[in-house]
Design goal:
heterodimer; A: alpha/beta; Fumarate Reductase Iron-sulfur Protein, Chain B, domain 2; FAD/NAD(P)-binding domain; 3 domains; five-stranded parallel sheet; B: alpha/beta; Rossmann fold; 2 domains; seven-stranded antiparallel sheet; seven-stranded mixed sheet; 9 helices; 16 strands; 30% helix; globular
């Protein structure tokens, strides 16, 4: 009998005021019993609307059916046919706007907790499965993957499963891309990413860290001298955007990328880390996306007394996942909505030029906004309310207003076209770029987007590369 | 892991190392930089390429011991390994078409200026070098500069070697005497580069500066290395490290460069204490 409760089983989580002071994972995951109970809410619809909402087309009702029977490893095997990173997706996918948004149970209540079940299954597998991973039979074709973020890892995994000899090139010293430098430990523990990368290595994928494609080796060298027959570019988002307002170079102004990289990749949250970061005091994060939420919640955990999110539209337009916003509010982050920064204010001691506080952030001037007519995307355009300027006292400002694509590969690869925003131009159905044998996906193509969209692009490209090299 | 195949102390606070890194050595050009981590869990620091040997696959770095990371690096010996070494990053110094150049180097910056001088010299460009140090015992690379320069002026703050004074003095004199360079290229402490630019500007003498701000990834991702150049935000790691000296906001760059001074001091002390315990 299906479980007809209108509500999802709640996700067990650390108490807000406790977790706001540590970097352990916020959500602790379903138990076996809760997972089965939640799985029983699935009606196993014949037309599987949920699958249509999944960018990598996981066979959702099938894996949930296995959970109902307590066959968790089988459930994992079903997910892993479609997704190379289940433990990651179960944590960071915006299920509410994807699979779960199509769930029939969502019409008269809450949808089935598909994301929570995916996470449960992946964690179960990671904890209990001891079997060897079978390395597939090689087909003799060499493919290079640039970047070890979600699109690159997905593309590499899918190709390796088909027998390709895949090498992933990573610019940083650690594989994982945004999963290790961007998304914080409390949302995605790094040991989970390491485990997923390890699984790929067991499939035969080689990972070369400390190689910057476009600098250390060019795409043309990969193809002409090193014998790679196809290349996938998943080099991710690039340079952080700033607002171009006065004071953005003051001491204590970070891009979200820098702030998060210092804390996540370089482990600045550990007291014995050799990488410094500004901690404590009052912090404002400018922006309303998931990255802004991550930066704000990281600042809080690093010991900030007060953290604000400053966003120029209202709660309704906030692009971050609802769950992340709720978590942030519970933890005590204050949302200053309909506010736009106009100037960052710095300390200046005119009597002592050597005063170390000179040039440090002391506040930010903002102007209040109101919402006008909708723009081309349907979001109401924020308009300044004249004369409404006010100042917030601050020690740190973090700009989380997006990125523009990295110029390194484009500038060193002949025949690779980019659009006017710097994104690599691809054919949507295949990920093929304007250069033969070269495919691309993820933020390098779309600009900042989600992990799962990048994974979808990696998957699409893997299929297209397989077809291209099978001819 | 990357092997230290050669190590030499140039003076009590400046060390030279040749690192086995064939992929980097194959591509490195004067003016570019690398990023390294000494150990697992180490900090990522940028160092400008001080030379390369494509045949043996080594890259030369020269660094001043200023903080915890450089202290740890200096403690490694020939035959030891460092954790990570990535590059070459940034754009190379533009040398094409230059016929007459004045290289102005200060302190450890001379190590970075040298490969530029050597490259220009190889290309048949007339190279005038002015290199400055605090005192004679901090002097480095004199012979190398001599070999790469048509004219070499050495300055020390205290007059213990060469001429007494700042590098800007002979530069100003040369410009006043009517010297015209295709370019003045200056590499050294920010305050020195600021004053080199202040010296050349009245003569409208084109001046290129090599910036070495705080960086993390060095590949155009974090934005920590941003500078204001001509009123625009530029990233030293992908747009530089060389910039038109007349356009760089030095005061801002100097303020940003000491952002973590307290942390650095503590780190340096800790590293020193750590090694004291070992020895």
């Amino acid at each position: 009998m299906p479980n007809m409760s209108p509500n999802k089983n709640p996700m067990p989580s650390q108490e807000p005021l406790v977790r706001a002071k540590n970097f352990f994972e916020v959500a602790t995951g379903y138990s076996k019993e809760t997972a089965i109970d939640e799985a029983l809410r699935c009606l196993n619809c014949k037309n599987m609307p949920c699958v249509s909402g999944c960018p990598v087309k996981i066979h959702i009702p099938e894996f949930i059916a296995k959970i109902k029977e307590g066959e968790f490893e089988e459930a994992y095997q079903i997910i892993s046919k479609s997704s190379s990173l289940p433990a990651v997706c179960g944590r960071v996918c915006p299920q509410e706007s994807q699979c779960e948004s199509k769930c029939v149970r969502g019409i008269k209540g809450e949808p089935v907790g598909i994301g929570r079940l995916e996470r449960f299954v992946a964690d179960w597998h990671n904890e209990h499965y001891n079997g060897e991973i079978q390395k597939p039979q090689s087909n003799g074709h060499k493919v290079a993957v640039i970047g070890s973020g979600p699109s690159g890892l997905t593309c590499a995994g899918d190709l390796a499963k088909k027998g390709y000899d895949v090498t992933v090139f990573e610019a940083l010293h650690l594989a994982g891309g945004v999963l290790v430098y961007g998304i914080p430990e409390f949302r995605l523990p790094k040991k989970i990413v390491a485990k997923e990368v390890d699984t790929l290595k067991q499939l035969g994928v080689k990972v070369e860290t400390n190689v910057v494609i476009g600098k250390t080796i060019t795409v043309d060298e990969l193809m002409n001298e090193m014998g790679f027959e196809a290349v996938f570019i998943g080099s991710g988002a690039g340079l952080p955007r700033f607002m171009n307002i006065p004071g953005e170079s003051l001491k204590g102004v970070y891009s979200a990328n820098e702030f998060l990289t210092r804390s996540n990749l370089m482990k600045a949250y550990n007291d014995d880390s050799h990488t410094p970061i500004m901690k404590g005091g009052k912090v404002a994060v400018v922006g309303g996306g998931n990255v802004a939420m991550d930066a704000a919640r990281t600042a809080l955990r690093l010991g900030a007394d007060k953290v604000y999110i400053v966003y120029r539209r209202s709660m309704e337009e906030l692009p971050a996942r609802k769950e992340e916003v709720e978590h942030a509010i519970e933890e005590g982050i204050e949302f200053k909505l309909l506010n736009n920064p106009v100037k960052i204010l710095g300390y200046n001691n005119p009597d002592d030029k050597r005063d170390m506080k000179n040039g440090c952030v002391i506040g930010m001037e903002c102007v209040q906004m109101e919402l006008g007519e909708p723009d081309e995307k349907g979001r109401r355009r924020p308009i300044e309310i004249e004369g409404s300027n006010f100042t917030i006292d601050l020690d740190t400002v973090i700009m989380a207003i997006g990125t523009s694509p990295n110029p390194l590969i484009k500038s060193t690869t002949e025949g690779l076209d980019v659009n006017n925003r710097g994104g690599i131009i691809v054919e949507e159905a295949t990920g093929a770029t304007t250069k033969q044998g070269v495919y691309a996906g993820g933020d390098a193509v779309t600009g900042a987007a989600t992990v799962i969209l990048a994974m979808g692009a990696g998957k699409t490209a893997a299929e297209a590369i397989d077809e291209y090299l099978s001819k | 892991m990357f092997e230290i195949v050669n190590k030499k102390e140039l003076n009590p606070t400046v060390t030279m190392m040749d690192i086995k890194a064939p992929l980097v050595a194959k591509k490195a050009q004067a003016g570019q930089f690398i990023i390294l981590r000494v150990d697992e869990d180490g900090e990522r620091i940028p160092l400008t390429v001080a030379g390369y040997d494509r045949e043996n696959g080594t890259v030369k770095i020269i660094f001043q011991i200023v903080g915890g990371t450089t202290e740890r690096l200096n403690h490694k010996q020939q035959g030891d390994f460092i954790q990570d070494f990535v590059g070459p990053l940034g754009k190379e110094t533009k040398v094409d078409g230059l016929k007459k150049v004045c290289i102005v180097g200060g302190g450890v910056g001379c190590a970075i200026a040298l490969p530029v001088a050597q490259r220009l010299h190889e290309l048949g460009c007339e190279v005038h070098s002015i290199i400055g140090f605090r005192s004679k015992d901090l002097l480095i690379l004199e012979d190398e500069f001599k070999a790469a320069s048509d004219k070499l002026t050495i300055m020390t703050d205290d007059g213990s070697y060469g001429e007494k004074g700042l590098v800007t003095e002979p530069l100003k004199q040369a410009l006043e005497n009517g010297e015209k360079y295709d370019e003045v290229i200056t590499i050294g402490p920010l305050i020195m580069m600021k004053f080199v630019v202040a010296t050349t500007k009245p003569f409208d003498q084109k001046t290129t500066v090599s910036m070495n701000p705080i960086m993390i990834d060095g590949t155009g991702m974090c934005g920590g290395c941003r500078l204001t150049v001509g009123g625009e935000t530029k990233f030293a790691c992908v747009d530089g490290p060389d910039f038109d000296g007349f356009l760089v906001d030095f005061d801002e760059a100097m303020a940003r460069s000491v952002m973590y001074k307290d942390f650095e001091r503590k780190e340096h002390e800790e590293a020193c204490n750590l090694f004291k315990g070992v020895e």
